[in-house]
């Protein structure tokens, strides 16, 4: 009876399953297996984003990454042996991960889905550059199909190669854009040199796209935020609250709004929202008991990292230490703080204390169209 | 069944000066069910038939047996009442269990044997009743959560059509979920 359920109805049911349950259900018989792979997980809000921790290792191909299941609150190990080159994580694109092969100092980008083991290089950029800022914009929102992801990647600044033997490398004051629908890069235009310099020198971490602007924050003090207004190709710079006193600062997007997460030297971790007129409003502080637990024996916020999706914000350090999560609890309609134990052992073996870069991902078990 | 439909008709007449129209739905096994048109229009399929003027006296539903059809009608009546006199679209159905008073009723409604549940899904799909389809699919999804493939096969009486080698291959694809 059930093995004959029409595929579209079965896919509907599968879209309600969290990825671990779907993975097991898809192994029960051929029909269900085909169906699970053919239809994407819906990006409906009943499916939470999962925290994926990619170990940072220089010049070694990664063997595994680690996944945290937010519903059952346990960890999984996911093999990355399908990656051909050593990579660094750049950021998420829905269910895909944007990565940067590290074998070259010049920027090259690739995308992968760690669940379906798909990997693909993006075409080369028009202008060769090192250490530019990279930003991702999803073209469509929740109606977007996982099978045909539509996104744009913006690359700004960086240093170009030396043009002649005697001349040194210079800052590259141009902006390029990749459109997944065309699978090509195009040069959008020039950008102010001072922004190119800042973005290169301070090599920002992930970008955040909110309300038509792509934002980056510098990677160290004194923190400031740079924004690219996509529609008009204009740049803005924003001050950051307590810029001199923050020991870490990250941008995330919370319910569509640009949010700054920062740890004050000798103080608490705080969250500010960007409100009208490019002002910041303090919206939340991490409760002290979580802060104490998170910092452990450390006295500074310095090694704290942070990622967010619209519905959750994770603060983390390395693989074994615990994480602090601020997440929207759907049934209550409000955000709450949670502690998540780190990944200490796996399959009976101790896990090394690895530095990691985290990303929040909507797992998809269905292969996307990555040509 | 008869008494409950009478009380619905009476309350509708008190509240509205239109839409006391009825339609008759005929199941695959020849049984006829008279319902308020507004209740029947919880089904988009029936709504289109009526709006296209093809309703005549009876709407035949060759894909739905009487047993299932009576349950579907029960669902539609309950949800139509809860939505009030406004549009027959599923305004009452929310995923927020703390504010939706129908959640308890819905939970009881789907406490049925698997055959009935299966038929309800097919009927909800054929009749295009979003709320019922979401409810029944969620029920099945909840039955799958947390189970191993073997437990899923046992719950849903599915034959394992893989050889041991094939099954090992398939598990390997999603190895992480088995550890």
UniProtKB/TrEMBL annotation, chain A:
F-box domain boundaries? 1-34
The lineage's top-level taxon is Eukaryota
Annotated Pfam families: F-box-like
Question: Which PROSITE patterns does the entry link to?
Answer: FBOX
Which Gene3D superfamilies is this protein grouped with? 1.20.1280.50, Kelch-type beta propeller
Return the protein name.
F-box only protein 6
